[in-house]
Amino acid sequence: MILRKENSSSSSVRVVAPYELTRTIRIKPNESGQTILSFFKERFPFVSEFEWARRFDNNWIHEQGVPLEKYDLTRSNQVINHYAPRVVEPSVSDSITIIDETDDWLAVFKPAPLPMHQGGRYNKNTLIYILREKGYENLRMVHRLDSVTSGVVLLAKNKQSAIELRQMFELNKVQKWYHAIVKGEVEQTYRITAPIRRKRGFVFECGENLSGAKSAVTTIIPEEVVNGATRVKCIPQTGRTHQIRLHLNYIGHPIIDDPIYGPNGDQSGLKLQNSAISLQSSGLIIDEMNIKITADS
């Protein structure tokens, strides 16, 4: 198994022209009670304080047409509209490979960096949007990969298959495995059980006795050592955000080029993730639905 890592010389780059956009954002219960400004600064950490002031002054952040003040407090299930006159999305790799499909599902190899769906700086430069342009309408996500992670993704083509596939993931009836290149020589198999919680923005943390942390389990198996780094097979038994990246860092073998949890990583939540990392979703099996998808298919 060799990780298929995208780069500028081997994959096409997608660039979209600037456009105007109004985002509709619903406040979750755990996001209520903070100022509107604090909420947006955490949700969009790449936007400067000066730019937020400009957006509020121009009444671009409102609720049903009524402008919001930056120190108004958020409410649970509140719907906020956020207008931007000129959205410039970062370029992405769009070398999406169709692996297999039926009337009910579509399996693709997602390149990196490429987000799965709309959020943050991305709207049109996402897997779902690009596949829609290719004729795959109404696809439904049943699991996710980080923008910076490449590999196998399974998508449902209709509501019923989405329900069935999501149930398989929720009941841990999906066998998944990943491959990563990590720092140092990994000399043993690990079973990591450190719980995970959100630290700030899109940065998470793991460890024992963390209040509000969710259980997470990953098995790490060393496969090959090359030039002081190790290719490892990673088998997650839960599906927490950044789980494999966090657990590899937890045992002292972070992914070699992870900008957040890797060697010299920046966990401030302010540094943008713009490049693919050496982490690949290599395959998944759902025995009950006779599905087997691998990156080598």
Question: Helix and strand layout, with pairings?
Answer:
Elements: E1 13-14, E2 19-26, H1 36-43, H2 49-57, E3 61-63, E4 66-67, E5 79-87, E6 92-93, E7 97-101, E8 105-110, H3 127-133, E9 140-141, E10 150-156, H4 159-170, E11 175-183, E12 190-192, E13 196-200, E14 203-206, E15 218-226, E16 229-236, H5 243-250, E17 279-286, E18 291-294
Parallel strand pairs: 10-17
Antiparallel strand pairs: 1-6, 2-5, 3-4, 3-5, 7-8, 8-10, 9-10, 11-16, 11-17, 12-15, 13-14, 15-16, 17-18
Detailed description of the structure:
This protein has 297 residues and is of the alpha+beta class. The protein folds into 2 domains: 19-87, RNA-binding S4 domain (Structural Genomics Hypothetical 15.5 Kd Protein In mrcA-pckA Intergenic Region, Chain A); 92-294, Pseudouridine synthase (2-Layer Sandwich). Helix content is 15%, strand content 32%. It has 5 helices and 18 strands. It has helices at residues 36-43, 49-57, 127-133, 159-170, 243-250; strands spanning 13-14, 19-26, 61-63, 66-67, 79-87, 92-93, 97-101, 105-110, 140-141, 150-156, 175-183, 190-192, 196-200, 203-206, 218-226, 229-236, 279-286, 291-294. The strands form 4 sheets. Strands 7, 8, 9, 10, 11, 12, 15, 16, 17 and 18 form a 10-stranded mixed β-sheet that branches. A 4-stranded antiparallel β-sheet has the order 2-5-3-4, with no helix packed on it. The chain has a two-stranded antiparallel ribbon with strand order 1-6. The radius of gyration is 20 Å and the shape is globular. The protein starts with 12 loop residues before the first strand and ends with a strand. Residues 5-10 have low confidence and may be disordered.
